[in-house]
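Batch manifest, entry 17 of 40.
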Amino acid sequence: MRTLSATLLAAQKKADRLPYVGAKVYDYEAGIKRLSWTRLYEGSEPDNHHGIAFDGQGSMHRIRAAAGNILYRQKITSPGEASDYSQWTQVATDCDGPCAIAAYGAKVYIFYRTTGNVLWKYYSHDYGQSWDDAQLVAYDEVHFMAACWWSTGNVVVCFALKSNEINGIVLDTSTQVASQHTQTYAAPHTHILSSTIGIGATFNPFWPACEIVFAAKQSDTPYDHYDLFRTWFSNTYNFLALESFLMSPDGEDITYEYPDCHLPANAELYEPNRIVAVEKYAGTTAYTRPLACHMVKGTYWSDSTFTEPKPFLDISSSYGLRLQSTADYWWMERPDGVWRAPRPADSPLDLTRDIVSLAADSSQLSALRLELDNSKGQYASPGEGELASLRFRSEIVLELGYKTTAGKETSAAGTYWIDSWEYSSKPNMSRFILTCLDGWGLMDRWTARYQMRWNKDEVNPKSVWQILYQLLARAGIKLTNTPPKPQSSAINNFYPDFTVNPGTRGDSAIRKLLSFVPDRLVFRGQEAFTKNLLADEESCYSYGTDHVILAGQYTQAVTLSRSRALGRDASDNRILEEALDWDLLQLAIDILEQDYDPNLQTAARAQERADAILRARAQEAEPAVITIGTNVGQELLDVVEVTDKRCGISQENYRVQTIHIDYDRRKGIYEQRLTIGAP
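Output type: structure tokens
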């Protein structure tokens, strides 16, 4: 149960309660600001390798490779809508394609591969007024490049990518001394790469490290595949083990190419590392389409918790897009285009004063219905003007509370995402009604784009909790155990060979995964947590004494009396473990449920599964429903104590299974209906 102040606890138990309900709308995607891109320039430059950086005066520097081994650069002072992005200055006549740029303060560094098959540097220490050039390193057969400044010092890092090798070239700009740090992806390495197709990098001061994304084709069994991989370059100049977060099997004509990533300096909480890449389809009808995704709020690059990459811009893009930022804007470019999106988040839209009624039901995918007064026509134009934040999939943060002796006090009652709206009218009445999804609804709307598989071999094993962590991330939800909740051994120590096939809905995948363990999942705001439902868990709240039960219905029913889990050990020997309810069996009630899973390779894992099945069915055997004045701190899976002497119930513990909230200011209704079961 959420923690409430003493005054709020007292207020919700009073007979003359004074409700207070609030709701605000944010144009966020699970806590991350959604970007609205505006194109500032549309030119005719041919697509090719390119890059963008900003110096300490805010000037934009762009580069592009062109036919005839030409490399061009551009400097735009105070870039904006009126700037001329069509003027270019020739830098070199020996550029063999791959190039990169980075800047900090007065320094601007351009790197490229020469026709002589070495890497070259072209650099300025006075904001691009004068330039020098020299060989960077003698490193040949480079196909793709990226660069980023290391913090605020003198070091810039150029990343050079071959077909199966990456080189982090560390250049001290104060001495022009360079060092090389390579990682090869060939046998016997875990990831065997046969080709690469682009790289991006950005600096994160938290670690500190350069966070890197690159595209490659991996040789694998049973089939090769094209992936977007993440790694990083640490402050000891080592690369983190690769992990794929987007994959397409060879033979399906889809490849992922030319990625980039960027994290703004002094990023706000709603600003993560963002990734762009190209999805290329070579079949009928062919396309090259930019995709975008981002880190899940509050997670780390090493966790590979990226949202589902999705189309976001109606253009064709062969060489991808490059990202950068200034204090006020995100910037994105390619040779013939420049885009920007505001960085600062808009103030939330406060719906509180217009709330007429609401219904929230944790058992439904459309979990919130919010009815607003529209008598002044104030909601006539969603997405415009003062309603700019009111768009499909905008977030609604719901607050439930009471007017107390300390004022208006509330408790966070969940985050919801707008799925639809409707207008309703009668004589002298106009309503604007929002229907919203919760976390389960978001996962229902997500479907797997390709086959996702964990633990097909012993490389980089993932437990049930870790798989769940990555699945929820696709919808932007962070799985957390803060503050700590009880967890079963199985959820952290069972490593199933688990496959999510293309087209599988996210909620189906999660429910299948959770069927392996006794733990349950609860969404809380933009996060979720798991909880092992221990039979001896203490109650956190009492109903029927100080907090009156308005109505109650209590049932006891026959349920499962025996569960059986079957598996196979490493030698293919059969494993069978059971859990039994002897009270029912002694009444000659033998109801059996069996589960065969080849992942159950030890007796301990099989016994955990049998116990989990019997426990889940036992919790369904004592369904009850109580109606109460709203407890604004109540959460799913809490254990509560119930006393209802009218039905002979005295200090019995139950577990909260679903929560339904009704509020209607016209009718004076502010109630909760809790479905509860055995603890």
